[in-house]
């Protein structure tokens, strides 16, 4: 593995202060890096960028991809797209657009280049999938359940009216009988309370331990066929419908003890991690930077890596929060918290000492990569990293040794 998972950083379980602060906006970074899909040229990759100077192609090893090509640009007006290519929206006023149908909605999402931050899929393709599945319930996904990460629920709170309007438009286009927002209820912020509704949109709150994915069906009806849309994708759908704007930004949480002003920031897609950190006040050099989530994210060393649609957070620490690794004390806490019912402690020990056949018999392939085991471990063992390496070994069926 070229990138090491964060392993479930031993963070304090709170979302303040980034959660309740206003969203800031990094308008124009010095440069941006736009992914170039395989078989595509730079013009295709930069189709949604206006008034940007092309510099050249850069190659990055990026988490989740073996290798990727990026077009490097110097933006002069990032986020200031024109309106000529969006086919359907109200140019005159910010009133609810009437009579927008399914085909209109798909066309808007496609030409606005909207990507759902929850799963990295194009929104128009998700809409087509919803129609095929005959979805009758639309859910605005505002679930932030990892410590320090609040980019979704903060968007719900700060841009709730836009989320509600876009969800209402989508529900009308799908003739969905139900629509509501879903967020995680464990937010340690006594100053801010997530309301039960915003803009006429009902908000349901999931309780219980991390991870919550296995319990989502408990908050929907038995006969509901639900389609989940990220709250940021809904905000960009709102902007596309009402103002003809294409998506060129994403909202991330920037936090950690190296950050002077932890907050949620809207940044242009392709902004280097370094610029996002400096924008929020990088008060000292970090020794560990984790992107995409404090529990299930990835530690990086190259701070020029770009922020993409699915980058939920950038967390920078001066001293790794996990501390020094100690010998296993056989407390069994990792086995107790594992939602997949695995035995991370035994998989770790077998993998560390080279007993891979024994480790594989404990079914590490069932790991859901939540990193609960590493998070709870009082000895600060990087359990999830070892489990994932054994899991990858099984998937690849390669005989090479695994380095702990």
Query: What is the overall pLDDT average?
Result: 82
Q: Approximately how much helix is present in the residues?
A: 25-40%
Radius of gyration: 22 Å
β-strand percent reads: 15-25%
Number of helices: 12
Strand order of the largest sheet: 1-14-13-15-11-12-2
Sheet with most strands: 7 strands, mixed
Unreliable spans are: 78-85
Helix/sheet category: alpha/beta
Helix-strand topology string: EEEHEEHHEHHEEEEHEEHEEEHHHHH
Number of strands: 15
Q: Quote the distance from N terminus to C terminus.
A: 12 Å
Shape label = globular
Give the SSE layout.
Elements: E1 4-5, E2 24-25, E3 32-36, H1 42-45, E4 52-62, E5 65-75, H2 102-111, H3 123-133, E6 137-142, H4 151-158, H5 160-174, E7 178-184, E8 197-198, E9 201-206, E10 226-230, H6 231-243, E11 249-255, E12 263-268, H7 273-279, E13 288-291, E14 298-300, E15 313-317, H8 333-337, H9 344-352, H10 356-360, H11 372-376, H12 383-396
Parallel strand pairs: 2-12, 6-7, 6-10, 7-9, 11-15
Antiparallel strand pairs: 1-14, 3-5, 4-5, 8-9, 11-12, 13-14, 13-15
Helix pairs in contact: 2-3, 5-6, 9-12
Q: Could you describe the 3D structure shown?
A:
By secondary structure, the protein is of the alpha/beta class. Helix content is 26%, strand content 20%. It has a seven-stranded mixed β-sheet with strand order 1-14-13-15-11-12-2, sandwiched between helices. Helix 2 runs antiparallel to helix 3 (123-133) and helix 9 (344-352) crosses helix 12 (383-396).
């Amino acid at each position: 593995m070229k990138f090491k998972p964060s392993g479930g950083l031993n963070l304090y379980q709170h979302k303040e202060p980034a959660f309740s602060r206003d969203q800031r906006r990094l308008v124009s970074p010095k440069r941006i890096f736009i992914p170039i899909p395989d078989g595509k040229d730079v013009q295709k990759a930069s189709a949604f960028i206006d008034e940007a100077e092309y510099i050249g192609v850069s190659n990055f090893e990026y988490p989740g991809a073996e290798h990727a090509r990026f077009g490097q640009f110097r933006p002069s007006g990032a986020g200031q797209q024109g309106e000529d290519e969006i086919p359907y929206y109200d140019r005159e006023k910010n009133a609810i657009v009437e009579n927008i149908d399914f085909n209109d909605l798909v066309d808007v999402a496609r030409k606005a280049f909207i990507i759902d931050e929850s799963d990295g899929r194009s929104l128009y393709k998700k809409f087509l999938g919803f129609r095929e599945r005959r979805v009758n319930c639309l859910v605005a996904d505002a679930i932030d359940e990892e410590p320090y990460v609040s980019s979704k629920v903060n968007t719900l709170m700060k841009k709730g009216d836009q989320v509600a309007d876009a969800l209402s438009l989508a529900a009308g286009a799908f003739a969905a009988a139900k629509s509501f927002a879903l967020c995680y209820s464990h937010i340690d912020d006594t100053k801010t309370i997530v309301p039960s509704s915003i803009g006429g949109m009902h908000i349901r709150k999931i309780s219980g331990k991390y991870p919550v994915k296995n319990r989502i069906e408990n908050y929907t009806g038995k006969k509901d066929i639900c389609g989940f849309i990220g709250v940021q994708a809904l905000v960009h759908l709102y902007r596309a419908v009402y103002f003809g704007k294409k998506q060129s930004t994403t909202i991330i949480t920037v936090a950690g003890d190296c950050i002077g002003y932890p907050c949620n920031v809207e940044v242009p897609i392709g902004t280097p991690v370094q610029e996002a950190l400096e924008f929020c006040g990088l008060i000292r050099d970090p020794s560990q930077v984790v992107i995409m989530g404090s529990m299930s994210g990835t530690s990086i060393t190259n701070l020029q890596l770009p922020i993409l649609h699915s980058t939920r957070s950038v967390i920078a620490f001066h001293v790794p929060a996990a501390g020094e690794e100690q010998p296993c004390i056989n407390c069994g806490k990792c086995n107790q918290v594992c939602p997949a019912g695995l035995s991370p402690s035994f998989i770790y020990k077998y993998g560390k000492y080279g007993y891979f056949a024994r480790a594989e018999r404990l079914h590490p392939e069932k790991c859901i990569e939540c990193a609960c085991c590493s998070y709870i471990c009082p000895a600060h063992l990087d359990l999830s990293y070892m489990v994932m390496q054994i899991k990858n070994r099984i998937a690849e069926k390669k005989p090479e040794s695994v380095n702990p």
